[in-house]
Write a structure and sequence with these properties.
Elements: H1 5-14, E1 28-35, H2 42-61, E2 65-67, E3 70-80, H3 85-97, E4 104-106, H4 110-123, E5 127-129, E6 145-147, H5 152-165, E7 171-176, H6 179-191, E8 198-204, H7 212-220, E9 225-229, H8 232-244, E10 250-253, H9 260-265, H10 268-271, E11 275-278, H11 287-300, H12 306-325, H13 331-338, E12 342-345, E13 348-351, E14 363-367, E15 373-377
Parallel strand pairs: 1-3, 1-4, 4-5, 5-6, 7-8, 7-9, 9-10, 10-11
Antiparallel strand pairs: 2-3, 11-14, 12-13, 14-15
Helix pairs in contact: 1-3, 2-12, 3-4, 5-6, 12-13
Length: 387
């Protein structure tokens, strides 16, 4: 249990604690939150935090949550990991040993989540992921790690279906130079049919801003499409450079590029025709999804995003588990309850398989010339852009 304690003091000099109420104050249950609120990943982190906040507010406005024989308000203890592995690990240990929260939600970045997971298991504090997508996070037998969002494998299957539907071959890739990025590429390559060929594969580091050499290699590979495994800041830079270089190619983006905020980094001309994975399409069916979209816009004055929807559902799932466990302190009981939760969320029906992985709905959306988006996949929900 002490594997990360040597870094605890140093890391917390940098990790900003944004939360408020101490755990287990009178009639308050405090839930731990880890995300990136500063640094290069703060933009997507803000969606994650907003989703948690909206869930917290909705529960408290409804009078709180009854757990056992007591009604609690919900409070969030929020820490900033900056997507730094050492800081995330130290925060996870602090939440378990100092704040003594019953459950932790987050993390934004896959490598940090991987460092936090064994600490969650050591201290028997359930960790619910709402954004990281690396397949192996939930296949290592950690009983205290759960994930409400779709893994790379689920996203890859739908993207490959799209490649086939649109006859996009060869396929180039430009993605994060980390385990998540490399894993996503390997996963897609493993399920490509013979009719879809592999083009150039490039990896970039966080903070990289000049993609010209990659663009040259993509052009020379003869690719018809390029998958950009990037966050919104790097993705906007890459797309602008691709279009300014005159490269006429189908661009395929990530969940981070499926928002109005991403459009504001460019303009409709740059993104028109671009497609991207989406865990929460604005035109998705269902009253819960529609109500969440409207509530988010009213609360934050901006369009919502998949990271927010997934995080909203994650907090609600945690609360359902505490209700089933009738406890705000027994991590093992809450873990066991999580394994049996069946929650109808804004991202779909959420229940966990034997690896503690949920199977929410997943979409592919397309940017239209007027700056709106429409569903491209699944085909049953697909709609053409309006003129």
């Amino acid at each position: 249990m002490t594997r990360y304690r040597s870094t605890l003091a140093a890391a917390f000099a940098m990790a900003a604690c944004l939360g408020g109420v101490p755990a287990y104050a009178e009639d308050v249950v405090t839930i731990g939150i880890i995300s990136a609120t500063t640094g290069p990943m703060a933009a997507p982190g803000s969606y994650q935090i907003n989703g948690f906040k909206l869930a917290e507010e909705d529960v408290n406005k409804s009078g709180g949550v009854t757990i056992g024989d007591k009604t609690y308000k919900v409070a969030l203890k929020v820490y900033d990991s900056r997507c730094n592995v050492a800081e995330g690990a130290a925060i996870m240990e602090r939440l378990a040993t100092v704040d003594k929260v019953p459950v932790v939600l987050g993390e934004l970045c896959t490598p940090v989540a991987a460092a936090e997971a064994p600490i969650a298991q050591d201290y028997k504090v359930p960790l619910i992921l709402t954004v990281p997508t690396a397949d192996n996070l939930t296949t290592q037998g950690n009983p205290y790690l759960f994930r409400v969002n779709a893994p790379n494998a689920a996203q890859n299957r739908m993207l490959v279906d799209l490649f086939v539907e649109k006859n996009l071959s060869p396929i180039a890739e430009l993605t994060f130079n980390n385990d998540a990025g490399r894993g996503a590429v390997a996963g897609r390559r493993a399920i490509l049919p013979e009719t879809i060929k592999s083009g150039y594969i490039g990896f970039y580091n966080v903070g990289e801003v000049d993609f010209s050499s990659h663009i040259t290699n993509i052009r020379n590979s003869g690719a018809k499409a390029v998958v950009l495994g990037m966050d919104e800041e790097a993705g906007a830079l890459a797309i602008k450079q691709i279009r300014d270089a005159g490269l006429d190619i189908q661009i395929i983006g990530t969940l981070a590029m499926d928002s109005d905020r991403f459009l504001h980094r460019l303009n409709a001309d740059y993104v028109a025709g671009m497609i991207q994975g989406s865990a929460f399409a604005l035109t998705a069916p269902g009253e819960k999804a529609k109500a969440f979209t409207e509530a988010y816009k009213a609360r934050f004055g901006a369009e919502t995003h998949a990271f927010a929807a997934q995080s909203y559902d994650g907090l609600m799932v945690a609360i359902e588990a505490m209700k089933k466990a009738a406890s705000v302190s027994d991590g093992e009981a809450i873990r066991n309850a999580l394994a049996t939760v069946d929650y109808k969320g804004v991202t779909g029906d959420l229940k966990f398989d034997r690896n503690n992985q949920a199977s929410p709905l997943f979409y592919v959306t397309q940017w239209c010339k007027n700056g709106t988006r429409t569903i491209a996949m699944p085909l049953a929900l697909a709609a053409a852009c309006s003129s």
